[in-house]
Specification:
Layout (H helix, E strand, L loop, with lengths): L1 E6 L4 H6 L1 H8 L4 E8 L3 H7 L4 E5 L9 H17 L4 E4 L4 H7 L10 E4 L2 E4 L1 H9 L10 H6 L22 E5 L11 H14 L4 E5 L5 H10 L2 H4 L2 E3 L9 H6 L3 E4 L3 H9 L3 E5 L5 H4 L7 E5 L25 H7 L11 E8 L4 E7 L5 H15 L13 H7 L15
Parallel strand pairs: 1-2, 1-4, 2-3, 7-8, 7-10, 8-9, 10-11, 11-12
Antiparallel strand pairs: 5-6, 12-13, 13-14
Helix pairs in contact: 8-9, 8-14
């Protein structure tokens, strides 16, 4: 039996976004998948990927163990990993820890990133993708499909997540906030959106989801909503563990959310997602995977930004979410004027993976993104060649490749 190892040392949303790659490896005959994650996410990873052997490392999670216990556990995990003869290793994270883990294994077995003779290296596919990230406005590929592109035969996009369908429970989930506050709607704007959806759905139960840190936000939301709506709020913040979250999500008709791990878990389970993307969140990179999810994407000229940098524009990306046109649209009424700098997108699938079709608003970057997407299809050999350009434009070639990429290849070809 072949053994293949995937290092996914980021947060739980990234573990779910590795699904297409992990499924592609698992589909290989006679192959056992091993997945290495942060200690805090081992149990959830086993729930998501019951066919995989899951290993833990101290990447970012905090728990009750002493430093000595963490060190002992890490040492034991490294020893186990070194004892297995892995045919291939996929270090997925561009981080010092990921490169250090890659150094444990022979360079010719690494895919994506590697450490060769003490030097951190990019494979050809990851190097190309970094070039694509130079202007995120034109980002042509979802993170799920980027990681899947490391595999020579990725699963078909339609085999990744189920088609979303409501549970018909009369319950809608609301993820109160993401890990970074800049990605989340403040309570007054969220209240307007929730009230409009509440009206359109004829008064469903509203289940508030998050950590105990979001409990004050639920109370604030309750005060901002009309009394008849506030009575339908169910506060589950701080009362649902990561292991309990899948069961809660399965019972929902829809999940209202910013760009969060819960959003990706909902898509994984086939729960319809209604997402609000602002600030640094960019649906073309990290939107919900599958058919028929809805994303409202802010597109001010400064987007997408770096969320950890101070905003010089007074969070201009928030304004469209309080616009009367959007609120009318969400409530099922005719909107005389759609807000500027806002897109309404629906997720679709093509031969490369997931993409987002704009149904309201004007996407100023659609043409450039489409050309780059065609170029990637050509590079990966995906899709119908009759629909692809027979010759790459000079502008796209300069965008996809740097001068050094045309030089003779180095001695490492991982990925």
């Amino acid at each position: 039996m072949r053994h293949v190892l995937v290092f996914q040392l980021a947060r739980f949303g990234d573990i779910i976004q590795s699904k297409r790659l992990i499924g592609s490896i698992a589909a290989e005959s006679g192959t056992k998948v091993h997945l290495c994650v942060d200690f805090s996410l081992v149990a959830l990873s086993r729930l998501l990927y019951p066919f995989a052997e899951v290993h833990g490392l101290p990447a970012h999670g905090a728990d009750s163990r002493t430093p000595a216990e963490v060190f002992a556990g890490a040492r034991e995990s490294y020893a186990v990993l070194r004892s297995i003869d892995f045919s291939e290793i996929y270090p997925l994270n561009f981080s010092p820890l990921s490169f250090a883990c890659a150094a444990l294994f022979p360079p010719d077995r690494l895919r994506g990133y590697g450490r060769v003779n003490g030097q951190d290296m990019h494979g050809r596919w990851t190097a190309l993708s970094f070039n694509l990230m130079r202007d995120r406005r034109f980002a042509p590929i979802n993170l799920v499909d980027f990681w899947a592109g490391l595999h020579p035969a990725p699963l078909p996009p339609e085999a990744v997540n189920p088609i979303p369908a409501p549970a018909k429970s009369g319950r809608i989930g609301i993820v109160m906030a993401g890990r970074d506050a800049r990605r989340s709607l403040p309570a007054p704007i969220l209240a307007g959106c929730v009230q409009s959806i509440f009206q359109a759905r004829q008064g469903p139960a509203l289940v508030c989801i998050g950590t105990k840190n979001e409990s004050p936000l639920v109370r604030k939301l309750s005060r901002l909503l009309p009394p008849q709506t506030a009575k339908k709020l169910e506060d589950r913040t701080g009362a649902t563990s990561l292991l309990d979250l899948p069961e809660l999500l399965r019972g929902l008709d829809m999940l209202i959310t910013p760009d969060t791990g819960a959003m990706h878990l909902a898509a994984h389970l086939g729960v319809p997602v209604h997402a609000f993307f602002l600030s640094s969140a960019w649906c073309f990179e990290t939107g919900p995977y599958g058919l028929g999810h809805v994303v409202r994407q802010a597109v001010p000229p400064c987007s997408p930004c770096r969320e950890h940098a101070a905003c010089p524009h007074a969070l201009a990306c928030l304004a469209p979410f309080g616009h009367k046109g959007l609120l009318a649209h969400l409530s099922g009424e005719y909107a005389e004027k759609w807000p500027e700098e806002l897109l309404s997108c629906v997720s679709t699938l093509d031969s490369l993976g997931v993409t987002y079709t704009c149904v309201d608003g004007e996407d100023p970057y659609a043409a450039g993104r489409g050309e780059l997407r065609s170029g990637i299809k050509e590079y990966l050999g995906a899709g119908d060649a009759r629909t692809l350009p027979t010759r790459m434009s000079c502008e796209m070639g300069e965008f996809l490749y740097k001068e050094r990429d045309w030089m003779l290849p180095g001695n490492w070809k991982g990925g």
